[in-house]
Amino acid sequence: xxxxxxxxxxxxGLKSLIMAPLPNAELVQNSLQLYRYLLRCCKQLPEENIRxxxxxxxxxxxxxxADEDNPExxxxxxxxxxxxADWVMNKYKKQK
Length: 96
Description:
Elements: H1 31-43, H2 48-64, H3 71-95
């Protein structure tokens, strides 16, 4: 998620050019679905230490945003987290 700036970074203007990291990203509508989705993304990463790093980042971000109750803000967080996960997945896909 994007709470820990620097953990999951946005990829800027490439949003429409790169596919989502896993199928069904568009189905994520609440925080629990997002959490599960991001952890599934982590399982796709190439090395265990990288997977651990991003799993930790996901968990920390969820703790930071746990008290968020504004539905618009929650949707912004979900959108940004999926975009950031997309950036991370593409970063490591290129390194293979």
